[in-house]
Amino acid sequence: MNANPHAEKCDELLQLLCHRHRRQILRFLDTQPTNTATVDELVEHVDSQSGETSLSTEMHHVHLPKLADSGLIEWDSRSETVRYYPEPLCQDMLRTLRSHNAQSTSV
């Protein structure tokens, strides 16, 4: 039985987007003129959004590798830059999740 490639891609994206820090990373990169930022800028943004501090280790060892393995970002560890390659299905999921979060906080 052949698997549905669209369903597999949905599953992969849902696994990636299940963590709020990865959603914050992609949203931030999407707002940048060239979809590019330094790792320091990402850490600062996620820290400010989450109220947590010192996420650098988690960013380097968990979130950026997962996003890079998926092909959504390119991470150059030498220059410490990250570039996002927007994908329509991912963009749709991020918009839906943001809309859902906005609705649940206004209730």
UniProtKB/TrEMBL annotation:
Name the record gives this protein = DUF7344 domain-containing protein
Q: Where is the DUF7344 domain?
A: 15-83
User: Which InterPro entries does this chain map to?
Assistant: DUF7344 (IPR055768), WH-like_DNA-bd_sf (IPR036388), WH_DNA-bd_sf (IPR036390)
Source species, please? Natronococcus amylolyticus DSM 10524
